[in-house]
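Record type: monomer structure entry
Structure origin: computed from sequence
Chain ID: A
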Amino acid sequence: MPGKHKNRQFYRDSDVPRGTHLSEVQRVEVLTLFHRAKWNKTKIAKELSLARTTVHLTIQRGIVTPTKPTGRPNMLTTRKRKRLVWRATLDAEHRRLTYEEIAHIEGINACRRTLTKAFEKECYHRRKAAEKPLLTPAHMTRRTNFANHHKEWEFNMWRRVEWTDEATFRIGGFGDVWVTRRAEEKYDPSYLTPKFRHRPGLMIYSAISDHSKEPLHIFDANQKVNAQVYSCQVLPHVH
C-alpha cells in the first residue's frame, strides 16, 4: 500500500500545471504511447513531464490538432449591433450623438472601445460633418437646369465665362460637428452641417477665368452682403 500512495503523489504534485496547452507533436506522442505502446496514463505523464490530468483529457478527446481557445464571448451580439446602428442613423439628431449616448438610449452598458469596434464591424465611424450650404429643392432644380442647358457648350464658349466664389472664415472658437456615417455618405444631406450660419466671420470674394484672376475682396465682418453691395464693390473689379 505505501508504494501505491507513492505513485499517486506524482501526478497530484506534478511540476507542470494543469490546463497545459499541448502542441500537435505532444498530442501525437501521448496518443501513440497510449494506443500503440499500451502505456498507462501515469507512465505517459511521467515520461513526457506532463500532468496526468492533461494526459487523460488528451486521450479522452482524441484530437491531434490543438483547438484555438474560445476566449471571452462578444459582449455585443449581432442583434445589439444592429440596434445601435439603427438608433445612430435614425435621423440627423441621432447621427450627432456619441456612441455612449446611443448605447444609453438603447439600455446597453459597454465601454467606448467596445462600442467603437461594434460600429466598425458595421462599417460606421465617427467623422467630422462636411460643411456645405443648405440647398433647397429650388436651388437643386436651377443647378440641374443650368447643367443641362450648357452641357453642349464648346471650349471657346466656356472661355468667355468668369467663375466667382466666396468663402466665409469664422471668428472665434467653434467646435466641430461629428456624425456617425459610412465613408461613402459624406455628402448625404442628413450628414452635412450648414456652412453659413449667423456667426461672426469674414467673407472673401474672388473670381477666375481663362484669361484673368481677380484680386481677393474682403468684406467687413458686420457687413451684410446683398445685390447692392456686389454691384458697388465687386462688379467694378470684373473684367
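Annotation 1: The beta strands are 125-128, 131-132, 162-170, 178-181, 193-194, 201-209, 217-218.
Annotation 2: Residues 1-18 have pLDDT under 50 and may be disordered.
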